[in-house]
């Protein structure tokens, strides 16, 4: 019975605190508003606010636990929940800060894998359309790689790997977009540099066949027939059934050329790797 009365008292204290704040919960942020509550009471209020869609107020509660009861078990739990609440609220910088703080203080705890995953998501979910700066994409890749390599047996590793592939593809998309822009403007040497990056650094993405075709296109325009033929040969070896190879074949044969390895260039080295099965 005493235990039941204690639990009832806990909920009564919570109800009183919540009703006193009113509105959207601005009273929570008044100086000392939560100071008289236990860490468990603050945590439960935070959960309740989170469930009702008030992520910002929930995050405030979870972070207050650490301020009021530092280094406690509830502070540890509140920190990871703060990262989650901030992320769900779209406050990505705050989510990163909370997740990183958890990793700094509790690197060996069970929730460390989840903290690293939230840290990665806080970058990944900010990846915008392909025309924007890709700095966040690089940061997302680094954070996702950490999840995959440091926590390979965690329940977040598989999703991190899938998101890593998508972010990797996103970077290749950026290179392709810029390369196409250069092609359209007749800046073929600049275009070659972009498409080369895709072929050398992002060859596992879906953009490789088009990048090889664009190399054929750019090299033909530059009068570098040997490079154009070699790019066509790589395209035909790896992606013979694609429309990109058919277009490259038409482009080359229309100028009396054919897909073939000719001369020595960076593409020749790539082709040799293809034949040995080291690059697909």
Automatic annotation (TrEMBL):
GO terms for cellular component: cell outer membrane. CDD domains: BamD (cd15830). InterPro entries: BamD (IPR017689), BamD-like (IPR039565), TPR-like_helical_dom_sf (IPR011990). This is Outer membrane protein assembly factor BamD. Keywords: Cell outer membrane, Lipoprotein, Membrane, Palmitate, Signal. It is found in: Cell outer membrane. Residues 38-231 form the Outer membrane lipoprotein BamD-like domain. The lineage of its organism: Bacteria, Pseudomonadati, Pseudomonadota, Alphaproteobacteria, Rhodobacterales. SUPFAM superfamilies: TPR-like (SSF48452). Belongs to the BamD family. One of its GO terms (biological process) is protein insertion into membrane. Pfam families: YfiO.
């Amino acid at each position: 019975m005493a235990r039941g009365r204690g639990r009832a008292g806990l909920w009564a204290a919570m109800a009183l605190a919540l009703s006193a704040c009113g509105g959207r919960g601005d009273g929570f942020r008044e100086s000392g508003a939560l100071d008289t509550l236990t860490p468990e009471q603050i945590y439960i209020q935070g959960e309740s606010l989170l469930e009702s869609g008030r992520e910002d107020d929930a995050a405030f509660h979870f972070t207050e636990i650490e301020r009021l009861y530092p280094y406690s078990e509830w502070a540890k739990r509140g920190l990871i929940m703060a990262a989650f609440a901030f992320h769900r609220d779209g406050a990505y910088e705050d989510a990163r800060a909370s997740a990183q703080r958890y990793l700094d203080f509790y690197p060996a705890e069970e929730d460390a894998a989840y903290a690293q995953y939230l840290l990665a998501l806080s970058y990944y979910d900010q990846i915008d359309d392909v025309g924007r700066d890709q700095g966040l994409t690089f940061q997302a890749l680094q954070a996702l790689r950490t999840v995959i390599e440091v926590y390979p047996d965690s329940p977040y590793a598989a999703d991190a790997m899938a998101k890593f592939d998508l972010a990797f593809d996103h970077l290749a998309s950026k290179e392709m977009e810029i390369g196409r822009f250069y092609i359209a403007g007749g800046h073929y040497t600049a275009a070659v540099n972009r498409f080369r990056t895709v072929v050398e650094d992002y060859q596992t993405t879906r953009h490789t066949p088009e990048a090889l075709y664009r190399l054929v296109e750019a090299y033909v325009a530059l009068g570098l027939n040997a490079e154009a033929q070699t790019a066509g040969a790589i395209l035909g070896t790896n992606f013979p059934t694609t429309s990109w190879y058919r277009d490259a074949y038409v482009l080359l044969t229309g100028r009396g050329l054919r897909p073939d390895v000719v001369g020595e260039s960076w593409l020749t080295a790539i082709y040799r790797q293809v034949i040995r099965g080291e690059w697909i």
